[in-house]
């Protein structure tokens, strides 16, 4: 089973402590061969949901607490793969006590482009963008899948700074109360500079992305601009 989960610390004042814990203590447990996991990635918030300083998102992408939930944004995300019981064990005990939101999804992965500039590590290089997607409710899955697939070449053309672009398809919502997203977009940039200067190739490209996504994307939870730690 492959799972992608978004996490928020139970106390906003304790977010920094939670982010340290999820990498240092929790991450070490994931890396232990006894965990049974075959993939374990911890993605930890490194900027606000508006992105790093200098990133210019169009108005339709700058969502706030009045029109997107949950708010404040997530503190971390986990990408886990392995036997069902090994993955489920990650939500027990201290993780449950330290978080007030655990939005967990069983997913399938489609890597749309990989230029090979992201180096695995603790942390890996650069900055990662992750965002859950609500597709328009009147679109059947076949329609939004087709639209999202057809969007990929435009995204690759316009997001010139990106090194790897993955579309995660939500196959099952595993946690009660989780937003009913249908997919998760994940973009990796080799450096923060690549993200700030290469998220869009031009104002024209920025407008093309905004116009194209409006046809099939209705919104989604807050974005996660983050640093990735690859343990397995």
The fraction of residues assigned to DSSP E strands is 25-35%
Helix content: 25-40%
Topology, number of strands: 9
Structural class: alpha+beta
The Cα radius of gyration reads 17 Å
Spatial strand sequence of the major β-sheet: 1-3-2-9-5-7-6-4
Distinctive features:
6 helices; 232 residues; globular; 28% helix; alpha+beta
Please characterize this protein's 3D structure.
With 232 residues, the protein is α+β, with helices and mostly antiparallel strands. 28% of the residues lie in helices and 31% in strands. The protein contains six helices and nine strands. It has an eight-stranded antiparallel β-barrel. Helix 4 packs antiparallel against helix 6 (203-214). It is globular and about 50 Å long. 39% of the residues are buried.
Write the topology of this structure.
Blueprint (H helix, E strand, L loop, with lengths): L1 E8 L5 H17 L7 E7 L30 E6 L2 H5 L5 H5 E16 L12 E9 L5 H18 L5 E10 L9 E7 L2 H7 L4 H12 L2 E3 L4 E7 L2
Concise overview:
The chain is α+β, with helices and mostly antiparallel strands and about 230 residues long. The chain has helices at about 15-30, 85-90, 95-100, 140-160, 190-200, 205-215; strands at about 1-10, 40-45, 75-80, 100-115, 125-135, 165-175, 185-190, 215-220, 225-230. It contains 6 helices and 9 strands.
């Amino acid at each position: 089973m492959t799972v992608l989960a978004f996490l928020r610390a139970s106390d906003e004042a304790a977010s920094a402590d939670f982010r340290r814990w999820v990498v240092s203590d929790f991450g070490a447990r994931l890396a232990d061969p006894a965990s049974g996991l075959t993939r374990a990635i911890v993605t930890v918030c490194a900027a606000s949901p508006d992105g790093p300083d200098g990133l210019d998102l169009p108005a339709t992408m700058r969502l706030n607490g009045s029109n997107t939930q949950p708010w404040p944004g997530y503190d971390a995300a986990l990408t886990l793969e392995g036997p069902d019981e090994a993955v489920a064990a990650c939500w027990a005990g201290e993780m449950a006590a330290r978080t007030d939101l655990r939005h967990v999804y069983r997913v399938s992965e489609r890597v749309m482009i990989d230029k090979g500039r992201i180096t695995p590590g603790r942390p890996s290089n650069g900055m990662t963008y992750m965002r859950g997607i609500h597709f328009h409710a009147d679109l059947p899955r076949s329609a939004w899948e087709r639209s999202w697939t057809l969007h990929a070449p435009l995204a690759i053309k316009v997001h010139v700074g990106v090194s790897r672009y993955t579309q995660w398809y939500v196959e099952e919502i595993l946690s009660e109360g989780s937003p009913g997203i249908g997919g998760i977009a994940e973009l990796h940039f080799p450096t923060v500079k690549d993200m700030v200067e290469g998220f869009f190739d031009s104002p024209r490209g920025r407008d093309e992305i905004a116009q194209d996504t409006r046809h099939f994307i209705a919104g989604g939870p807050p974005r996660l601009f983050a640093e990735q730690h690859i343990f397995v």
